[in-house]
Amino acid sequence: MSGFTDLRDKLKSMTPHRDNYKKVSEPSNGEKRKHRESDDEGSEYEERRDAEARKVKSGIKQASIFTPEECARIEGKIDEVVAKGDEGLYREHTVDRAPLRNKYFFGEGYTYGSQLEKRGPGQERLYSKGEVDEIPDWVHELVIDRLVAHGVVPEGFVNSAVINDYQPGGCIVSHVDPIHIFERPIVSVSFFSDSALCFGCKFNFKPIRVTEPVLHLPVRRGSVTILSGYAADDITHCIRPQDIKERRAVIILRKTRPDAPRLDSLDSLSPSLHSFEKRHILKPKRSHRKADPDAAHRPRVLEMDKELQRRSVSSRQRRHSDNGSENSWRRVEEREPSSRHTHSHDTHDHAPGRRVKMRRH
Length: 361
Hints:
Layout: H1 7-14, H2 17-25, H3 29-58, E1 60-64, H4 68-86, E2 95-98, E3 101-106, E4 110-111, E5 125-127, H5 137-149, E6 160-166, E7 172-175, E8 186-191, E9 195-199, E10 203-204, E11 209-210, E12 215-219, E13 223-227, H6 229-233, E14 237-239, E15 248-254, E16 262-263, H7 275-281, H8 303-345
Parallel strand pairs: 5-16
Antiparallel strand pairs: 1-13, 2-3, 3-6, 4-5, 6-15, 7-14, 8-13, 8-15, 9-12, 9-14, 10-11
């Protein structure tokens, strides 16, 4: 029998070094103070985030208005819009294509900052009247009239309708709907699948990455989301790639401001461009990329990354071609002495084929 009456005493005697380890690893007062300061900073950061999230929530309203049957009928109409766009039946600036996301402007459309000489927030301009198609009748009858009946917007409020059609893995980067273009509130209705709207994210690229949002707002199929106040004006919102796991469409309904700047002429573009070039620069982007069902679960490869890869491959191919030509040149030179020696013993009746050295240009 051992002299231990308690198993804890026996374990302690078998690992005496653990007591010494605890003494050595005991943090000093300075280290304790640093840990406390770090914890305090983290706590303050979380409090600020929570306070901002509350501000965002104060400017958001959601309602479930559309039944599954009504959603199915509207989704059929959205499919018809997509088909007409693919057939080229809309005006030039009605359709704006991007990888995994197409936009269809009705009533009013506007240019993005990158299409103008001066870029950035506040530079957006409405297109001239008639540049985009009118709001389809079915949008009024099936969507807008229902919102008016439920008191979401007043009669005659909406004069701009945009359909965003997302494929799996699609996204729209963080932005604020141009305050100088659109009045508030901003109303959106979701279709085809559930998704989420995120606030306060930052996007990084190569590959695409998105920071944690201040607020992650689930949006269900058939739900109506209304943004105003802080949520609409003082913080950005976005759609992250990981939140689009299935096809999703949203109809955004807004009212343009009476004094919103309009692109009545192309004078706001670079004056050095000719009229043809000015018309060309405003053409909407075109993309025919197929939907990838797994795209939502891995980082997207952007077009800029593909271009860099193509350049790298081309460069390696050129170097390989140059090395091949150089080696061929050396092999010809090595054969030349023996060739000349053979020629000196040949008669005039037997003339061997002439060897030609190819020079690189």
